[in-house]
Amino acid sequence: MSTDLILVGGGLANSLVAWRLKQRHPSLRLLVLEQGDRLGGNHTWSFYESDLKASQHAWIDPLVAHRWPHYDVRFPGLERRLPTGYRSIPSERLDSVVGAALGDAVRLNATVTDVDAAGVTLASGERLDAGAVIDGRGDRGGQHLLLGFQKFLGQEVEFAEPHGRDGPVIMDATVDQRDGYRFIYTLPFDERRMLIEDTYYSDGPVVDQAVSRNTIADYAADQGWTIERIVREEMGSLPITLAGDARRYWADAPENVARSGLAALLFHATTGYSLVEAVRFADAVAAQRSFDAATLARLSRRISFSLWRRQAYFRLLNRMLFRAATPEERWLVLRRFYGLRKGLIERFYAGRLTPFDKLRIVVGRPPVPFFRGVACLNPATAGVLR
Ligand SMILES: Cc1cc2nc3c(=O)[nH]c(=O)nc-3n(C[C@H](O)[C@H](O)[C@H](O)COP(=O)(O)OP(=O)(O)OC[C@H]3O[C@@H](n4cnc5c(N)ncnc54)[C@H](O)[C@@H]3O)c2cc1C
Questions:
Q1: pTM to 2 decimal places
Q2: What share of the chain has pLDDT > 90, as a percent?
Q3: Residue 62 in contact with ligand 1 by CB distance below 6 A
Q4: Atom 17, ligand 1: which residue's CA is nearest?
Q5: Domain range 145-241, CATH architecture
Q6: How confident is the model at residue 251 (pLDDT cuts 50, 70, 90)?
Q7: Is residue 345 within 8 Å of 73, Cβ to Cβ?
Q8: Ligand 1 atom nearest residue 112's Cα
Q9: Among protein residues, the one whose CA lies closest to atom 14 of ligand 1
């Protein structure tokens, strides 16, 4: 056997695992199989500086193309600048840096049809054997999860003149509220270039692309910006977990096959973002002494179930947002949240809330009717609310 570990899918999670393993275990024989023509697809992955530890920043830093020392949120009646750093990784950077480090350990345009503990089969019929397999083929939805969605369409645009913004506006919710909680997200990449995303916390996953493109054009015009060129577009519909059964979700995974990323439910339940968990998972894999199939499969299940348990509180908040609040009221929940202390907001996004934080988020004057909120405590009743 010439391969120790096959990584199926060269998206965010498996690219980070492969890259971290290459750094820490250079003699390990890896093979990343990606169906697309590059690693990472077409995304901009952002995260808060406070999400990661110094040791994690140290290895992820070569992928970071944009850094800001603060970010803003805007709601009717609340504008706030938070002095928490924000960082972005474009997928082209992941492709060039990780691709160069992995060299011929990456095979592009390789679609995998079957996965088992001893290897994979490609669409061409070719069989590849390995000591272990990590399946990182991304979001697989699934009947065992009750989901809402964070969906968006973003355009990276170039303006005729400098836009004048000095940092990200993570949520500009002063726009019309429709199809759920709606906001515009902007990342200024340089003085004339910006990513503008039309974003919804919505009950359904479908992005109305034509509406979003018009919305972005209108938003730019309202700000007094003239779009000279649309550089690229990206689109997503991220799972926001309201309730579910992680063990049943995993039940169809072949024995002794590990999973990574969204496929392993490794994402923040309230944002659908997965970069932070992907960094943590890559570190956990690289900390192993043995890379056999049983060890990695056990590790990935353990990390997945542990995150699932720790995210129970976030699923409760999601039920409040999606079930106790009507779609038109959702922005009130977020406005109230952004009035809380900076440290709590940072711990919320890092998935490291303290018991006091959890209490602080829900006590006080509730932005949604009390009894609808209480009904959300039970996932079963929340599923049928409204
Ligand atoms: C447009 C967009 C923007 C996002 N922005 C952020 C953000 O700012 N911050 C954040 O933390 N999260 C963000 N997310 C959410 C999440 O982090 C991403 O979806 C992330 O890419 C998920 O990582 P993953 O490795 O699990 O899956 P993916 O990155 O989707 O990787 C799966 C890979 O598997 C490949 N694949 C699938 N099937 C096969 C097959 N049969 N054979 C071979 N290869 C296959 C796919 O082509 C893909 O490359 C964003 C998502 C999207 C869609």
A1: 0.95
A2: 84
A3: no
A4: 274
A5: 2-Layer Sandwich (3.30)
A6: very high
A7: no
A8: 42
A9: 273
